[in-house]
Amino acid sequence: MAEFKKADLKSKIETDLADNDSGSITAKTLRDNMLHIVDSVTPIVASGVDNYFSYALDIRDSGVGAINAPLNRINAEWDNSVVAKIEFVTGTDTDFKEDGGIDFYTSSSGVSYGSDGASKRLSIKPDGQLHIFASGVNPPVYVDRKHPESGVAFFVKNSPNILGVASGVNLNIGHLDERTKLFKRELVINDVSDFGFNVDYPEEPFHFRASGNALRLDLQSKPTNSADIIVNKYKGNHPINQDNLLSTFGMGIDTSASGTGRFFIGYDDDRKNRVDFTEALFVLTSGGNASFGSLYPKENFVVGQDIGEQTTTTGDVGMVVGAQYGDAHLFVGSGNANSTISNYARLQWDSSTKQAILHTRSAGTTNHSQLVLDSTNGNVGMAASGTAPDTWRPAFNTHVYASGDTTVGLENPMGSETAIYIGSNTSGSGMATIGNWSSIGYKSSTDVLKINNSGSFIPNHLTIDRLGHVGINTDSPYDNFAAGTNYLHVNGENASLMVGDNSSYSAIRLFGSRSTTDTAYIQAGTSAADTGAKLAISRFDSDTNNISEFSIRSDKTTMYGNVALNDMWLSNDGDDEGIRVTNDGKVGINVASPTHELQLSSNSAGKPVSSVWSVVSDSRVKQDITTISGALDKINALRPVKFKYTHEYCHCDHSGNIDDDTYYYNFIAQEVETHLPEAVTTTNIDVHDHDTDEVLVENIKTLDSHMINVYLVAAVKELKAELDAAKARITELES
Predict the structure, then answer these.
(1) How far is CA 61 from the centre of its chain?
(2) Hey, is 321 helix, strand or coil?
(3) Does the global pTM surpass 0.70?
(4) Residue 65 lies in a domain
């Protein structure tokens, strides 16, 4: 659009609009009005030959009260569409209105924008910040060196240095010293994308040179504890994308644990282009522990899986070679790793047998399992060279394995005492000694082998003399028994003898005879006068605890004294059945807790002639004898019943052998008590719930059926008397 001065504009209107006297609105009237409007407008265009503004251009708007709101704008339109504009906006000060910014809008062909067709590209904020909005544009800032108006560098002055970026064949980032007028490069990016730090000409994709601390990274914690530095390797001569990714390694710091940090190096094994702490191959903790394979090492150095806290004392150091699932191996040796004649020792933890095993190899020959430490039983095994299988389990505390003669040698070339010491120190108390004086099994003229735990041979805890007699806690095995020789003598006030290994069959066998009756004796006491001597068979831990079974197999067993059952059973097979005698003298037959002097579990008692039991009834031992009267009324009041016992009562200890499916016949004790109270007894016996032991019935009542039988006889006699009287009356009436 051409620019016009005010006079030129008026002249243009007068020329273009000619006089016209016809019509409701004449051209003259229209022209006069437009000229009047032009005369009333304050000039907004500059005067002067060069058509420039000679005064400031004010764009005013007093009706806006919001922050960052448009004040006014300059629009550029094409075919009635805004394709570019400059917009003046308010700042953040709505009280004094002393700040504001400018936004620049452009449009691009083929790209759809807002209603006015333009999109914000550049914004100058009230504080002077410059914002560039170039989403999807590469690069957002472009300097064309081929254009005559393009520059080759830009600088930011920060006296005395000027920070700048200079372009050329290489992109140089550094500073310009105002004093020397020299540009110092800090970062160089050459035309093949090599990075150089503090070097003028990088020779590698990443070329770094520094003095002092070479590199420092200050990073903020990320939401996920993944690696901070990622190194990817792609296929050569292929596009750099996920499909051509060969491997990904990363390093970083894990901060998931409060107050601690763990430096780690890991490998991305799921192609997610991220290395998490859970994928770490190497870990270094803030406490100085390092590991290959363990995320949380508790020891100074861990290879594989950390198997637990092995060092607990301050100042201790520890190294762990562990495996999560398989075996763990530690090699120490020499030679070529690819050679069959390498010489080494291999310490193996066998996860299946839970053993520490030492193997050796020399000149191509492997000696398997030369030393075995078994964690399951604490045994130690030693194997002669080449004789043991790859894995074996020592069966003894110290087990020497060999295919042929097995020898253990103690060599003393100086001729001094030779002995095996077992104990907490090398001499004195707390030590067991197995050895010889001058020769094994020989001391002076006594011809004995002595073994003890006192550090000397006095007293002798174990003595074997030349005749084969064995003495425990005695120098001279007792050999003065009436019948013959004692080959084993255990001496002491509380002497005991154990036979067996507490897990398998063991026996004490007595052969020979003491007299012509071929009797083998087990005797107790110190002499014939020891009438209080006792012989007890009990469990090893106490003289009052029972063993599981004591068997006597003989055609005849003779007891010369009372047999005390001590509230136990007397049965044919040792089970809880048969005869039970309580501590208060009550006898139960198949009844665990009899409440009577004799109690049967069921109605199965019998006699050859009848079921009647004899009762002492001699008149000479009776007094206060009274004939029972009124028995017929009492008997007639009783109710004979048919019933079943409850489940709880059938399963209590004193019930006997009854069940809850069988019908029984009797009376109800409470009903009998109403009419015949002397026949009912209230006990202190309770019925308990079989499962919870809750008391269901307290003080159960019992019935004396013998008393009812006596009353039945009295009732029959009363009934006969009434019958005889009735017969006499009938005879009298008939006559």
Answers:
(1) 73
(2) strand
(3) no
(4) no
